[in-house]
Each structure stands twice: as C-alpha cells, then as structure tokens.
Amino acid sequence: MPTVKSSQTGSLIHAAADDGTPIAVQLLGAGSGPPVLVLPGGPCRSPEYLEDLAGLAEARPLAVLHPRGTPATGGLSRGWWTDAADVVSAADALGLDRADLLGHSAGAQLALATAARYPDRVRSLVLVTPALTWLTDTGHDGEAIAGRRTEPVITRAMASLAGLAPEDEARFQADSPVQRPAGYARWSLREQEHAPLGSTSLAASGAWSRDIPGDAAHRIRQAALPPTLVIGGTEDILVGDAPVRAGARVLGARLEMIEDCGHYPWVEQPEAFRRLVDPWVVQDAPGPR
Question: The whole model's pTM is what?
Fold first, then answer.
C-alpha cells in the first residue's frame, strides 16, 4: 500500500468521481504511511468539527473526505448509497487498494455502504457514535437519555428537536445553535467552543437520504463486512444508546461504549476514544491487540 505524506496543518487534494465531480480530501498528520479515510457526519457537515480526532492524526495520517454538499466539494449528495462511489474514488486518488474507514454519525452509513458495495476495497471499519436506527427495529431512546439531564439548555434543545422540521434555510440555521447542546454529555467551555465547527445546510442534509434502495439495510446486514469497531456514548441523545448496541450486534461488530460521553467522544472523552481507536487503526492490521 503506498504511503501518503502530509503536513501537520493539512493539504487538500481532489479525487475525480465517477461523474467527473472533484471530491475534496484533506490530508492531516505529520507522519507517513497509508492514511485512514475519515467520513464526517452531519449529514454533509463540513469536517472541521472532527479536528484531528484527539491527536490521532499524529499517530497515523488521516485523509478526511469533504462530501458532496460541503463547501470544499460543492454540489449535493446523490444519496449516501450512491456516494459510496466517492469513497472509492478518494481511495484511488490516495493509492489505497484497501482502505481503513472511520465514519462518524451519518458517515457510518457511507462507510457501511462502501463496505457492502465494494467489499474488496475496505480493510476495516470504525463507526463512531453511528446513527443506526435504520438498520434494526430498535427504537431511538434519546429522549430517555435527555430525561436524565436537568440543564435548561437541554430542555430548550429537546423542544427544538421535537418541533416541526425546518422548511427553509433560515429556520434550519436558526435552530442549529439551540439544538447543539444535545450533542454533548456536558455543556462546558470546550463543548461550547467545538459545537459551531463545521457548516451544513438544509439542502445538503436533505439530499443525503434520496434515492436509497429499498433493500439497502438488508444488503448491509447480509454483507461480509471487514473487522468492525462500533464506539458509542452512553449519554448520546442524538443517536441514542440502544440503537447503537443493537446495530453493533447486527453487524457482528465489536462494541465499546464510553461512559459520560455524548456524540463527540474525541472532544468529550479524548483519552478513552484514543484507547479504543488506536489498536484498530495505528497498527499494521485492523482489530484489537
């Protein structure tokens, strides 16, 4: 597998997609070696919010996809099932025959679609606080998790999340700051500084779910997946606890739940996050040691 060298601040390359769209990929990390291909959530959230994944970029280079619908790539998603082809295009541009994929939240859908559609191109999967209610019959339990919280910011966030879906961009952008605290187990200064990072839009997030085959979940459940690690947060209101556990079982994945952690473990519990992720992506072969 060829190596990729990148600066600590990162550089941007573009991969030619199957329809000719230049897909932006940011290279992060001071070391050399084959990068981990990182797929952000949102959906279609600009990946600045991933930062360097709690210093993971210094242990192994990261190649961070800027999906369709983000400023660096532009356009709109063709749907996460179809956009799996963009992941393969990025791997081709990086010279990766088989890639280690790390997907956060909605990015886990893209990672799973890639592994199901192109099994010979994916070596391992790390799914961080993945949204998996679509994969199983397990209901979302985020409201029960929120019920353990008493902060006014959580009350306001949950009221906003339970309201009518925004129909225009102005409302979408106005709702976002109110809803942000629900993504974290605590709402301290670190979380407040992190929350605004990475833009998204109503049009981009809406396009993510279009033209998905009716049997996509079945095809993923039946796929011969590579070694897979699922990391959840016990206080993750956004994707819940039970759906993550159920999804990991369906996928035959190793499950690790981080205590006192919401949707962004590299921000909230960086040491625990690295302790779980490093054995899967830093060594030469995927899987725990």
Answer: 0.94
Asked if 63 and 26 count as a contact pair (C-beta separation under 8 A), the reply is yes
- As to burial, measured by CB atoms within 10 angstroms (0-12 exposed, 13-18 middle, 19+ buried), residue 140 is middle
CB of 103 within 8 A of CB of 231?
Answer: no
Please report which helix (H) or strand (E) contains residue 62, including its range.
strand 62-66
CATH class of the domain comprising 11-281: alpha beta
Q: Are 206 and 248 in contact (CB under 8 A)?
A: no
In the chain, domain spans: 11-281
- By DSSP bridging, strand 228-233 and strand 122-128 are parallel
Q: How far is CA 85 from CA 33, 42, 55, 91, 260, in A?
A: 23, 19, 28, 10, 36
- Per residue in 111-123, pLDDT tens? 999 999 999 999 9
Q: Is 224 helix (H, G, I), strand (E, B) or coil?
A: coil
